[in-house]
Amino acid sequence: MAEETGPWLVVGLGNPGRQYAGNRHNVGFLVADLLVGRLGARFGRHKRAMAEVAEGRSGLGGPRLVLVKPLTYMNLSGAAVAGLAQFYKVPPARVVAVYDELDIPYGQVRVKFGGGEGGHNGLRSMTKSLGTKEYARVRFGIGRPPARRDPADFVLSDFGTVERKELDFLVDRAADVVESVVLRGVEPTQNLYHGA
């Protein structure tokens, strides 16, 4: 059945352009970049969508992954995701969004299936374009901004000096979580990683 053997679409959410590269809002891109290295693949522009795409297999004989970094701005990510899901014949249940989450303390990675967007414009765009909330989410905690700092300004600022000391390790862990979702499923991944 195609539902069991088809590819997975793993979407790292972020904003294109060098000026955004180190922003908290771009942690999805950081995880996608690490995963593409693990696959031994390279990102290239897709002919049918405003996105960089790479393909490869996860683990030894694992399922095929289509890694995606939308090249639209965050608020418009959904059109590229929906177009690629259609192109690769990936149902929403096999789509994984990787993104920054204000409501989770810095460095914690949480997984869920479906649910709301929590004010995240990239997710809101994906939900609207896919026509459903029923897709997996890997949520990288960035924590709340300090008192009186605008959350919009906070997510578009770079990780702080102390945060950067742990960032590579945490991005690596988030990539492990994505691979676990693909290989094991959401619930087993929650059991494995949520207590850690």
UniProtKB/TrEMBL annotation:
Belongs to the PTH family. GO terms for molecular function: peptidyl-tRNA hydrolase activity; tRNA binding. It comes from Salinispora tropica (strain ATCC BAA-916 / DSM 44818 / JCM 13857 / NBRC 105044 / CNB-440). Monomer. One of its GO terms (cellular component) is cytoplasm. The record marks 100 as: Stabilizes the basic form of H active site to accept a proton. Hydrolyzes ribosome-free peptidyl-tRNAs (with 1 or more amino acids incorporated), which drop off the ribosome during protein synthesis, or as a result of ribosome stalling. Catalyzes the release of premature peptidyl moieties from peptidyl-tRNA molecules trapped in stalled 50S ribosomal subunits, and thus maintains levels of free tRNAs and 50S ribosomes. NCBIfam families: pth. TRNA binds at residues 20, 73, 75, 121. GO terms for biological process: protein quality control for misfolded or incompletely synthesized proteins; rescue of stalled ribosome. Gene3D superfamilies: Peptidyl-tRNA hydrolase (3.40.50.1470). This is Peptidyl-tRNA hydrolase. Keywords: Cytoplasm, Hydrolase, RNA-binding, tRNA-binding. The record marks 15 as: Discriminates between blocked and unblocked aminoacyl-tRNA. The active site is at residue 25.
